[in-house]
Predict the structure.
Amino acid sequence: MQWLIRLFSKTGVIGTVVTAMGCAACFPALGSLAAALGLGFLAQFEGLYINSLLPLFACIALIATVVAYLHHRCVNRLLFGITGPIMVLLTLYPLWQYGWSTYLFYAGLIIMMLAALWDIIAPAEKYCATSH
């Protein structure tokens, strides 16, 4: 069960970052990174990425974090893990119109990547020690 949760969590994070790379007009820093990595061809699918795949992968990461919490009951991992996807989803929907929302989006992606790294470096036990 734990490996399945980790798989979905990493899929959500990687999918969110890669789909964001295809949106050079919306997220110039990620678009530049994608072009440098040879992923410039992704720009032709920008509408699909922003409207469908990006929210889908952010939701996958969010759901995987909640399911992982139900398994290990570590509140600090839950709070850190849901912050990134929520920031990404807020940026895509209600906050898109504001100029500072791009910074919120980048911060959400960074938090998602840090949460994934935390899970790789120090995987949670079945029940977190801080929950007792």
Observations:
- The mean pLDDT is 81.
- Residues 2-31+43-131 form one domain.
